[in-house]
Amino acid sequence: MIRFPSVSRRFSRQWVARGLANVAGNLPNSRLPVTSNLKFFNSVQGDGLIPAFRVLDGSGTLIDGAELPEIDEKLAHRMYENMQLLPTLDSILYNVQRQGKISFYMTSYGEEATVIGSAAALESDDEVLGQYREMGVLLWRGFGVDNVMAQCFGNEEDTSTKGRQMPVHFGSPELHFHTISSPLATQIPQAAGVGYALRRDPYRRGRSIAACYFGEGAASEGDFHAGFMLASTIPSPTLYITRNNGFAISTPSTEQYYGDGIASRGPGYGIDTIRVDGNDVLAVLKAVREGRRRCLEQGRAVLIEAMSYRVGHHSTSDDSFAYRPRAEVEDRKHIDNPIVRFRLFMESQGWWDAAAEEELKIRLKAGVMKAFKRAESIKRNELGQLFTDVYGGEEPWNLREQREELTGLLKKYGEVWEPWRTELAKFKNNGQDLLNLRP
Amino acid sequence: MNTYQAVRDAMSLAMSKDDTAVVFGEDVAFGGVFRCTMGLAEEFGKERVFNTPLTEQGIAGFGIGLALMGHTAIAEIQFADYIYPAFDQLVNEAAKIRYRSGGQYNVGGLTIRTPTMSVGHGGLYHSQSPEGFFMAASGLKIVIPRSPIQAKGLLLSSIRDPNPVIFMEPKILYRSAVEQVPIDDFELPLGEAEVLTTGSDLTLLTWGTPVYHCEAALHMLASPPSSLESLIPPSLRSAKIELIDLRSVLPWDVETVTQSVKRTGRLVIVHEAGLTAGVGAEISAEVQKRCFLKLNAPVRRVTGWDIPVALQYEKFHIPDSIRVLDAVMETLTY
At the N or C end, where does chain B have fewer CB atoms within 10 A? Predict the structure, then answer.
């Protein structure tokens, strides 16, 4: 098939908006203005960069001209608690991984405001498709630390994945949080489909959106392009939230793109876009609320790029000081800390004080430690779950036979082959569910 | 009905009984480049039958998103040759979502339709048979019909199956294969092969377009045209060949195939894709394991060569009836 590009009606609007004045009429059969001016352009914002929307400065004070989003003491408390819960969980689970008790972990350090601010702005039944650093959205929706632990330990209570996926790959249909997968950006076109399904559902049309999170590195994948194009063209109420934290593992964003971040790409797809200070939880809250409103109003994609800094290592398999100076990280942590900024704001409102801070930290830590100790003692799922859920409906013959083959091998070697014997003891019923199968 | 009409009929039926069902892909709104979606947009509206931007990874991802919400997504990839940009979405995502979510999410509502196999002049990128690349993607199903009736019944099953299905339509059959197709709603089972002719001397296993090359070969064997008479020993002309249409490549019907080979003792597998690591390799390994004592000859594979499909050389590339005939005779006389 040979395909011919067609001229988009959209062009006209955007060219006019850029001030490429119509001096010589229009192209035939279109509203494209013609110009004699040989002018290339390389910015969506005149000759400048897209500014970051901010409400609070570093000391938690309203900046000139800014308006607070609608927020009361109760909501602020809930947001602050969840922002603090993230580093509490992070520091314990990071150390637990270091002790070899879980295989892997990824912290949210530095992105607490981006994740919690956006979670607070969404409705609790908006469908969320994340990348992996959005545990805060689940916590906001009441996932609970026991479920976090269960997934990270892959124990019997892990409803997210039945112990099948690596830690931090959470999921919960009840909380409208689609199960995380490792391949980057695959969720971006999927979110467009989810958005379209919401638009087609008479009970959710005009009421629910798909919210899709991804990092600035993932935005380099082809699926980013596909998803944005689909959600804007088809169209689907999908709110894309980019966490631009400056790094994709070791790759700084300067090696990830040459343009003006991710936000500059939005207008190219014809979608409403804003860049926001991702360390300012109130700016994120306000921007995501407005983005969500536009999503529903237009029924198509909206983009929010939240600028922050990945304070932690990429994951427990990464030592970020191999590619960035420790001092830079420490500086960022202290000079521009999203949690401190919000705390200062809350104090200025009379909503928070040192005693509340002390009480909260003790309470959160105790809760996380309790959940951790509990999770540690719970066994894994039955071993037979290794073979289930591959297909819906009838199990294919090859899976049945292969399960029976493992049963036969377990009967033969399960007691005498040390690597298996040790491992079987970690499973509920010690693998008896498979051993009792008739091969 | 011809095959494209049968495909269209299946989609129309599926959509009329399931309000969540939508059809989308490149150029499907005006009826599709093979006319498989003719009139569907008029019948069901633009919200249910629509064009997507030109992005295969996007089409697959979008369909997964719809299916995640419990909707029925019938996506089209314009040629199977262009399914590879969607490989990640299909193999890492669609195939694994049920498993990785502990059964909480699934994309059973997803069906990917795509025209496949050679068409006489398709060259490298309008001729491919990529079913083998997906055969290892446990969690997917792969279905290939041989005719209009098969296309309708198998497509309706695929759309309603609780698993993501890649439905590969042999494009040369869109217009050439014509038969009386029931206009009512019917389904044909997935994962089940169909024995087209029974026999006791050799099992001939194939799917899609080569079913017709195999039928022609069997006809030539039984009553050779004068030009071939001297090359076909009279003793072979009465050989009873069992011809099987596999229909589903994943999961494939091991029972029907091995039962047949245990009776005949001989197996020839025919497919258009290349030999190395093709579907035939998987099947012959399994058959040799299960039928070792019954085999009277090595399992023979008649396939495309291990090269791309070159435009002007196609007649010498595809496993046509003369190559099938030769392999059948050699296997019979081994």
Answer: C
